[in-house]
Amino acid sequence: MCGIIGIASNKPVSINIINSLKKLEYRGYDSAGIATLKNNLINEKKCSGRVDELEKILFKSPSDGNIGIGHVRWATHGVPSILNAHPHSSENVSVVHNGIIENSDELKMELESKGLKFKSQTDTEVITLLITEALNNNEPLESVFKTLNKLKGSFALGIIFKDFSDIIIGARRGSPLAVGYSNNENYLGSDSYALKSMTNKISYLDDGELCVLTKNEVSFYDDKKNKINKKIHIVSDEENIADKGDYKNFMSKEIFEQPITAKKCVNEYIDSLKKDINIYNFPINPKDLKKIILIGCGTAYHSCLVAKYWLEELTNIDVEIDIASEFRYRNLKFNDKNLYIFISQSGETADTAAALDICKKNSVKTCAIVNVIESTIARNADWVLPIHAGPEIGVASTKAFLGQLIVLYILILKLSSIRNEINQTTYNQKIENLKKIPKFLKKTLDLETNIQILAKEFLDAKGTMFLGRGSSFPIALEGALKLKELSYLHAEGYPAGEMKHGPLALIEEGLPVIVIAPKDKYFEKTLSNMQEVIARGGKIVFITDNKKKSISENIRFGLRVPHIDNLLSPILLTIPLQLLAYHVALLKNCDIDKPRNLAKSVTVE
Ligand code: M6R
Questions:
Q1: Residue 13: is it exposed, middle or buried by C-beta count within 10 angstroms (0-12/13-18/19+)?
Q2: By CB atoms within 10 Å of each CB, which of 374, 486, 499, 593 scores lowest?
Q3: CA-proximal residue: ligand 1, atom 7 (nearest)
Q4: Tens digit of pLDDT for each residue in 316-356?
């Protein structure tokens, strides 16, 4: 999604803005731009495409100025183009914006009726023109306050002013915004990661807040224009390490990091001495819990789906799951004996954050399972369980999915133990099994060479299907999501038992169908569903942990992952699917870390 950078300094800022924009590239974008201020002139440079292109433009025609704002845009209103790229500037003001202004059409009509002309198709340009108009009689801060009162929707803004050459104003409603501090230099950024090379001292704006940055100081205001103080966080070194090392791209690094991710996560939550799980401070006494509602988007939603099966197996707690963009508009009956759990790698996903806000407004208890602990979702939830995966840069979520699954499993195990729904021996055994995950993940990753061969079979495929039952059904969904987002190949995930109700019509000679069949209570049923596919010409890729099942001649390709505790099998079965999506995308020369049209952090609705 879009990314913002602003720097107020005592030296030229354009190079640092470009370097920071490069740090924001992982979010996914289609155009970039920068505006600097020198001698009371706003100097705007923009390009369609990558930040490298913008850098070349600046190389040919440098932009001086000790103050400036930069942006990477992910198109919402208007096609990706130079004209629609941010910043959007008038003679007096330049604005970068993340989010969506929902009443932009209305505001545009009003401004046009006054004779004002628009250069772009964006919703952002109304902000530029409104601030410019308001500046006629007001100081910058007042003109921004006046403008914000007219806006509906979500935004994070960075604004510079031709006649106020030492300030940048930042504002937040809905979309995240951070402020960084250094000597003779202060920063604005969409996330702390973008500021990492310049500072580790960060404050986060909350909704409705504004900030005014100069090179020497930063002031914060609430939505009533009162000056406020903000906490300064020291961002940990770990959050600052994000380098792809010898790997071709971040995704492969993140896939292969998973044994370490699992180890760290398990170590954080398992007390090996006490042979127990270190989870305390439940916002609701687990014995009083009526229901757990799990909410997320995309891959995070798939981890909710897996957790549903675990909750049903290990506890008597009612469980409901929902996609955040649906949850937020449902007519829900909230209950203070329910725990609402929000899963998000970034902690900034707009729909998930909005769903959490609704829960807060209804005074129910919330838990955030996140990777980024300083994120909006983490800060707003009553209770936070970090997944400790470290920065995930590839747009495709891999190690974060693993972390989400491990934390969910550990949480459910702990609930089950506190509620006396599991006996001590089984509890201890399950804790021991958790510790085996890193070793088993390593073994599973050894399948890569086979999967490289398998990937070639997908090059001419028209599409593909992923089938599974029980907790392998969400893994089928996850496999299909990974394949489509990375390789642009049409892929569907289905519960294997559902095939006869429609999807079987898609099976034709040679269609690759991935069947995920661990040795669980569904195994034989899944095999029957697989035979129905084989009978219609489907080319089967069979993934199992069942040592006894021979890979028969009807199966085109077999992959065997190590056998672990049945409940934990989804964790291992995901790995071949990540590798498959990765290798198909690699063969198709796709942009693996930044798939087309997608963003890492989906900060608009
Ligand atoms: O940051 P989040 O976990 O909230 O993101 C949710 C989804 O946008 C994300 O999982 C998305 O589906 C991934 N690109 C999938 O690989």
A1: buried
A2: 374
A3: 298
A4: 999 999 999 999 999 999 999 999 999 999 999 999 999 99
Give a yes or no: residue 503 inside a domain.
yes
Rounded to the nearest angstrom, the distance between the alpha carbon of 394 and the centre of ligand 1 is 11
Q: How many CA atoms lie within 13 A of 383 on its CB side?
A: 15
Cβ neighbour number for residue 104 with a 10 Å cutoff: 19
Mutating to test ligand 1, I would choose from 250, 297, 399 the residue with most ligand atoms within 8 A of its C-beta, which is: 297
State the residue for tokens 């996850």: 478
Q: In this structure, are 535 and 559 located in the same domain? A: yes
Both 428 and 373 in one domain: the answer is yes
- pLDDT digits 0-9 by tens, 189-239: 988 878 888 999 999 998 899 999 999 999 999 999 999 999 998 876 655
pLDDT confidence of 377, banded at 50, 70, 90? very high
- 412 and 555 assigned to the same domain: no
Cis status of the peptide bond prior to 87, with omega within 30 of 0:
yes
42/164 Cα distance (integer angstroms): 11
Same domain, 286 and 338: yes
Q: How far are the Cα atoms of 83, 558, 573 from residue 104, in angstroms, in the given order?
A: 17, 54, 46
Cα-to-centroid distance, 400 and ligand 1 (Å): 9
Does residue 466 sit within a domain? Answer: yes
Claim to verify: residue 349 and residue 483 sit in the same structural domain: no
Structural domain count, the chain:
3
Residue nearest to atom 14 of ligand 1 (CA): 396
Question: CB within 6 Å of ligand 1 — which residues?
Answer: 297-300, 344-346, 349, 352, 395-397, 481, 485, 601-602
Looking at the structure, tell me whether residues 421 and 339 fall in a common domain: yes
600 classed as catalytic:
yes
Our answer to whether residue 2 is catalytic in this structure is: yes
Q: Which domain holds residue 423?
A: 250-443
**Which among 345, 373, 486 is the best mutation to test ligand 1's pocket, defined by most ligand atoms within 8 Å of the CB?**
345
